[in-house]
């Protein structure tokens, strides 16, 4: 009887459809306490913040649940709720100003996690030990450059939001104008249009009093030769004398071979073949050129390929994983002889790699130019994320902390290290707030976008070694 009843009950209950979660809205009120008296920097930051809100970079909030989402294995999150009237209330003089935000959540969202901690954001500083903070002269120099960088990052976005075609640059003269005319003017905001925009007065004053702060610095090579960047010799010179001279290495195996898992990322063999480059080696075979240390490579295949599908799914981002082969000429200069462009394989019979060689006619000239542009894009990302942030800043932090904790300030080794460690902790803290943060300068300006820090982490795991980072070991390795 009990068994029969239990079975019947179970059958009856399984036939009842489960209730679908119901969406409902939750209203939040955020109260901000204003300072009675603001200094110049605080006033500027507030108005700049309001400007970013007007062009669509809003202040947003999210609710985190105490329950775990079974799909993401992370706490459930609400939608992003925009803080309303942030820019409209910029000039409100009240001691406290209230803003509202409206979340949409499911009935199965659970309880909001009141202990969920948000990262400290600017202008509230992260904690830095007093003896590691900037001195006044350093602070003033850094503040001017930081302001310049923020404006350079923000104002082209304003043009994009106002443009009917939503394009930053339509022609090369638009790029030239950033160096010669100034940002606000090149945004197309002259005369009456400029006056109608909700720009903070402080930005206009800076534009009127010191237009140089809104200009990009002209690279020295461009000041000497405006079209130097188009030529192969300058492209090759940048590999050893440009921003990132620490990636190029001697080619020892041809064709190059990937270290990535072939089951996931396709064949490890490169598409580069001897016939692609042999006619550019001054009569040498590829093996002879390798034996005489005449061939060099900048290889971004393995660092980019695992992220390409996600990068290329982002709006406005398109990239390849590149390999570039250089030949050392009798003049002692490098010459690019081939570029390989790779994408993740989309099918077993779908080619995912192509090789581009120097131009023979007008059509192939622009193909070659585009290939070089993709190399430069890869190079900028690796320089900033792997060589600059990771190898110069992030990897130094534990040594700085250890030195302060374990060594006396009078210790000879501490005395040697101190000039190299100085200011790094504060620079890193500021970088986490403005450069490498979500939607910060790095994510906005570099091809990897939101995957920038993942690439940096992957580079650390794959290639960072304490005993190979210094000179001469780095040069010997390469």
UniProtKB/TrEMBL annotation:
InterPro entries: LipOase, LipOase_C, LipOase_C_sf, LipOase_CS, LipOase_Fe_BS, LipOase_plant, Lipoxygenase_dom_3, PLAT/LH2_dom. Residues 1-21 are annotated as: Disordered. One of its GO terms (cellular component) is cytoplasm. Its cofactor is Fe cation. Pathway: Lipid metabolism; oxylipin biosynthesis. The keyword Nucleotidyltransferase does not apply. Belongs to the lipoxygenase family. Plant lipoxygenase may be involved in a number of diverse aspects of plant physiology including growth and development, pest resistance, and senescence or responses to wounding. This is Lipoxygenase. It comes from Trifolium subterraneum (Subterranean clover).
């Amino acid at each position: 009887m009990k068994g029969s009843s239990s079975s019947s009950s179970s059958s009856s209950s399984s036939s009842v459809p489960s209730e679908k979660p119901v969406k409902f809205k939750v209203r939040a009120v955020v109260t901000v306490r204003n300072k009675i008296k603001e200094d110049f920097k605080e006033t500027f930051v507030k108005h700049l913040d309001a400007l970013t809100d007007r062009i669509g970079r809003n202040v947003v909030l999210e609710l985190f649940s105490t329950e775990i989402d079974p799909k993401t294995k992370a706490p459930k999150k609400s939608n992003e709720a925009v803080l309303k009237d942030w820019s409209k209330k910029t000039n409100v003089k009240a001691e406290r100003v209230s803003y509202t935000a409206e979340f949409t959540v499911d009935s199965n969202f659970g309880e909001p996690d009141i202990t969920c901690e948000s990262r400290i954001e600017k202008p509230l500083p992260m904690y830095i030990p007093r003896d590691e903070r900037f001195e006044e002269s350093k602070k003033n120099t850094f503040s001017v450059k930081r302001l310049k960088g923020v404006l350079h990052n923000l104002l082209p976005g304003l043009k994009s939001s106002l443009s009917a075609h939503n394009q930053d640059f339509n022609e090369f003269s638009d790029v030239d104008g950033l160096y010669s005319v100034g940002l606000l003017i090149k945004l197309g905001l002259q005369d009456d249009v400029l006056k109608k925009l909700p720009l903070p007065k402080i930005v206009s004053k800076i534009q009127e009093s010191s237009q140089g702060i809104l200009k990009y610095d002209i690279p020295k090579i461009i000041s000497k030769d405006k079209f130097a960047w188009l030529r192969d010799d300058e492209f090759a010179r940048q590999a050893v004398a440009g921003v990132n001279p620490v990636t190029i290495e001697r080619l020892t195996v041809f064709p190059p071979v990937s270290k990535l898992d072939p089951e996931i990322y396709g064949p490890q063999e490169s598409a580069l073949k001897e016939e692609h480059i042999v006619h550019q080696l001054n009569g040498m075979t590829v093996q002879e050129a390798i034996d005489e240390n005449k061939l060099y490579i900048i290889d971004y295949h393995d660092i980019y390929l695992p992220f390409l599908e996600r990068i290329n799914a982002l709006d406005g981002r398109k990239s390849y994983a590149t390999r570039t082969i250089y030949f050392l000429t009798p003049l002692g200069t490098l010459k690019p002889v081939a570029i390989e462009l790779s994408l993740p394989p989309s099918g077993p019979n779908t080619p995912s790699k192509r090789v581009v060689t120097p131009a023979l006619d007008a059509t192939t000239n622009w193909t070659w130019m585009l290939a070089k542009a993709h190399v430069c894009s890869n190079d900028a990302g690796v320089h900033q994320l792997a060589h600059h942030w990771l190898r110069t800043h992030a990897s130094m932090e534990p040594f700085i902390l250890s030195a302060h904790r374990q060594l006396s300030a009078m210790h000879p080794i501490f005395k040697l290290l101190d000039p190299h460690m100085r200011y790094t902790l504060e620079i890193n803290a500021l970088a986490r707030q403005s450069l490498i943060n979500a939607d910060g300068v790095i994510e906005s300006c570099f091809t990897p976008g939101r995957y920038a820090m993942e690439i940096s982490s992957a580079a650390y795991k794959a290639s960072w070694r304490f005993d190979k980072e210094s000179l001469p070991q780095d040069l010997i390795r390469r």
